[in-house]
Amino acid sequence: MTNGNSAQIVLDRNYKGFPPAAAPCALSEIAARRWNILKHDLPFPIALLRESALRHNLAWMQAFAHTHGVDIAPHGKTTMSPELYRLQLDAGAWGMSFATVYQLAVGAAAGVKRALIANQVVCDADLDGLAALQKEYGGLRVWFLVDSVAQVRLIEAWQEKRQSRAVFDCLLEIGIAGKRTGCRTAEEAVTVAATIFASPALRLGGIECYEGSVTTGDSALDRPAVDALMARVAEAAKACDQAGFFADDEVLVTAGGSALFDLVADHLRPALTKPVRGVLRSGCYVTHDHGSYMNLLHKVEERQHFSSSLRPAIEVWAMVQSRPEPGLAILTCGKRDISYDLDLPVALYHCAPGNSLPQSVASEWKLTALNDQHAYLRFPENDPGPAVGDLIGLGISHPCTTFDKWRWLPIVDDSYNVRDAVATHF
After folding, report:
1. Is residue 415 part of a domain?
2. Are 95 and 45 contained in the same domain?
3. What is the pTM of this model?
4. Phi, psi torsion values for 252, nearest 5 degrees
5. Is pLDDT above 80 for 183?
């Protein structure tokens, strides 16, 4: 699976999660070690990916997009993993999305040919980097977001200072009052689009928005909020189309975080005089989670009448290192190892030494706190609980902030045999 930026990576004791006494190993040769997580072949904590769930999620999201007549450009900031980018592209992704020029560089080195930077590019160093990347990687096509005349003027000033002939592709961003970036009014959007059209430094390729900032988890509130936003997107697209502002024969219309992607999917192809390519940018679907996104996905399943959809693919395993009092186990896992920005981790599995497969834990077993390197697992005092040396499998909430704590993650089969690995480049 190894590709691009990770092709030459050799794992050794300098990589957290690699056995300190083991001989160095190329990332691509990890399966030959025949390691198994439950046999304590790797140190704890360890973050891992379950291959069966990864494969399922890749196929499921691609089928969802196909059913709705749109494409996907998954947000690469979630994983920052060239190996996972390649899996997503091989599964049929139209391109990849990023938030910064640095992230784009990781994707370009991994073979990404079409990329959306779902963010404004404003500083000279980033514009230098973007121009250099497009020169270095022939055929690389990149669109970034523009939402103000001031931003256009900065890009034109860069072009003049550098005496450059570079012309950047961009998307007009439609925003929401009180939220993140993007044009707030129809008049503002048309003014910015006209300025882009007249600029020697930019080409307008389509319209973008981000609906995730209106997420409440209540479909009765989320649906009308998304409908209103997408109506503004369609209005802006039609105004730009009528004015002849779009530079290409095909217009891009893109939205879709990881919470309300189903609500925007049917709005991504407004009727214009030119063909429209709708593009979803959901990123967390590839691994999903056991917390925030799982709860939000239940709402998607209700709205779409799915009996099931995505499966959690990422877990963090830790060892019980202390039983200092009844009803409390301290685990070898903390804020340095697992996400805690949205929710605390959840206890999923318990595996005592000698067991070949883990057992699901009782619902009363709860993670109640994290320190830098410790997790507090509490359970009823009359419950014997886990013993020192036992393993606990943890589910996470918010994949982005678990991936960024690991430079590599093993991929395991359903018996926790290590079959492959991915690297990250945060």
Report:
1. yes
2. no
3. 0.95
4. -90, 135
5. yes
